[in-house]
């Protein structure tokens, strides 16, 4: 019910393009930075199978959340002109994104997360380069995660460990079912193999 408010807050960030892949009715929105791309779950399965080179057969669209870290690979044809890409949710109300995702931060870091404890699925930015776009492959579990049709693993975030991380428990001390993107990014950042920014900028 608040989608029109969401669109308004997107419109007021004109230097950011929002690409919406959807099988919903496309609204009549006058905003050059809102780009609606007709899509379907069947198209997603075909695209993911082709790009990942193993069969993807999702029956539940919510499962696509696990694939968010791979969007840089899957949708490269749509984003190759951008320096950064990201994934967001459609139940956010944006302020001025450029006020907290500044030019200096974009120049310095390869991944930017507006939460101090983990990569949030509702807003994370990735530098658009092969190194970062392929990071999901650093997880020993990515094929298991992607080829399991309906079970959501919270791969894009931290395998459901939000509350423990917010309490301050180190991720490597938690009993996780999979190696998530937060595992990958935090580990590589600690090894100085990746420049990652974690700082809380989102009010909930």
Short structural summary:
This protein has 204 residues and is of the alpha/beta class.
Write structural notes for this entry.
The chain is α/β, with parallel strands linked by helices. The chain is built from 10 helices and 6 strands; from the N terminus they run αββαααβααββααααβ. The strands form 2 sheets. The chain has a 4-stranded mixed sheet with strand order 3-5-4-6, with helices on one face. Strands 1-2 form a two-stranded parallel ribbon.
Q: Per DSSP, what share of the residues sits in E-state strands of 2 or more residues?
A: 5-15%
Structural class by SSE content:
alpha/beta
Mean pLDDT: 95
Strand order, biggest sheet?
A: 3-5-4-6
Secondary-structure element pattern, one letter each: HEEHHHEHHEEHHHHE
* Biggest sheet architecture: 4 strands, mixed
Which percent range fits the helix content? Answer: 25-40%
Low-confidence segments, given as residue ranges, are none
How far is the first residue's CA from the last residue's CA? 18 Å
**Rg, Å, rounded:** 17 Å
Q: Please give the number of β-strands.
A: 6
Tertiary shape = globular
Number of helices, where a helix is a run of at least 4 consecutive DSSP H or I residues: 10
Helices and strands in order:
Blueprint: H1 3-11, E1 18-22, E2 34-38, H2 41-52, H3 71-74, H4 76-79, E3 84-88, H5 97-100, H6 103-108, E4 111-113, E5 123-127, H7 130-133, H8 142-147, H9 162-167, H10 181-190, E6 196-198
Parallel strand pairs: 1-2, 4-6
Antiparallel strand pairs: 3-5, 4-5
Q: What structural keywords apply?
A:
single chain, 204 residues, alpha/beta, 4-stranded mixed beta sheet, two-stranded parallel sheet, 10 helices, 6 strands
